[in-house]
Amino acid sequence: MKKIGFIGTGTMGTAMIKGIIGAQIVNPSNIHVFDLDKAKLEVLCSDLGVNAEENSREIVKKCDFVFLAVKPNVVKTVLEEIKDVFSDEKIFISIAAGIPLKTYKNTLGENKKIIRAMPNTPAVIGEGMTLISFDSCVQDSEVKEAMSLLGSLGKVECMEEKLMNEVVALTGSSPAYIFMLIEAMADAAVLSGIPRQTAYRLASQAVAGSAKMVAETGKHPGELKDQVCSPAGTTIEAVAALEKYGFRNSVIEAMNECTKKARELGNIYG
């Protein structure tokens, strides 16, 4: 059984650990974790049965797969710490937004096996969407193993690295937009007299069901929208109001700003 290491146990790191354990892909005793927050490590080890390590170097020494789950501004510091203990057979998977493969290779070595991943927070409940990119140093069998690990968080797809910054707005950050949509829908419902918790429940199911229809029917979202809009009906009135107040344009502009920021992070920390 291969050993899996995590450098960083924030929201995404912890979600990934729980997902891997929940899917019974790896025994908790074969998972090693490190975080600067010692109290957090103690709780994680107590709750999940994983092993805490004193530093990131110990994670690399003991593990076959090493997940880097830290903020972009910490990446280079960690790479400097581990570069002399990171051997050629190990697989390095980073979820830091905006940081290109070349940054990791510049420090760890051109021949090192690096996978760049972009998960999102629905991974916490096993409904995440993770994109990965890599180069020819990573063998097909190793890609399959990595996808199996990440698949415990939801769905996984490969993506050309040149599009990894562009996809941040589409998958990595998009749950925030959806949460805002659900909140706004619930606020309007509360204004109409519907209890708030009921409003959240109904709005979230409407969003979940609509997304599933797009995924499973294969129909264009516009076609599905048209099916709801009866002539002179209630829905077309709502759609007209959304168009009037720039709903589509707001989403597009928000995603463009998100993409711009992802590119900036790559320039700053890459």
Q: Any overview of this molecule?
A:
- This protein is of the alpha/beta class and 270 residues long.
- The chain contains twelve helices and eight strands.
- The protein has helices spanning 11-22, 38-48, 56-62, 75-82, 101-108, 140-151, 168-172, 174-191, 196-217, 221-228, 234-244, 247-269; strands at residues 4-7, 31-34, 51-52, 65-68, 91-94, 113-118, 128-134, 154-158.
- The chain has an eight-stranded mixed β-sheet, sandwiched between helices.
- The mean pLDDT is 95.
Give a brief description.
With 270 residues, this protein is an alpha/beta fold. The chain is built from 12 helices and 8 strands.
Keywords:
8 strands
Helices and strands in order:
Elements: E1 4-7, H1 11-22, E2 31-34, H2 38-48, E3 51-52, H3 56-62, E4 65-68, H4 75-82, E5 91-94, H5 101-108, E6 113-118, E7 128-134, H6 140-151, E8 154-158, H7 168-172, H8 174-191, H9 196-217, H10 221-228, H11 234-244, H12 247-269
Parallel strand pairs: 1-2, 1-4, 2-3, 4-5, 5-6, 7-8
Antiparallel strand pairs: 6-7
Helix pairs in contact: 4-5, 8-9
Low-confidence stretches: none
Strand order of the largest sheet: 3-2-1-4-5-6-7-8
Structural class, from helix and strand content?
alpha/beta
- The averaged pLDDT comes out at 95
Share of residues in strands: 5-15%
- Please report the number of helical segments: 12
Order of helices and strands: EHEHEHEHEHEEHEHHHHHH
The overall strand count is: 8
Largest sheet: 8 strands, mixed
Specify the overall morphology: elongated
Question: Could you give the distance between the termini?
Answer: 33 Å
From the alpha-carbon coordinates, what is the Rg to the nearest angstrom? Answer: 21 Å
The percent of residues in helical segments reads 40-55%
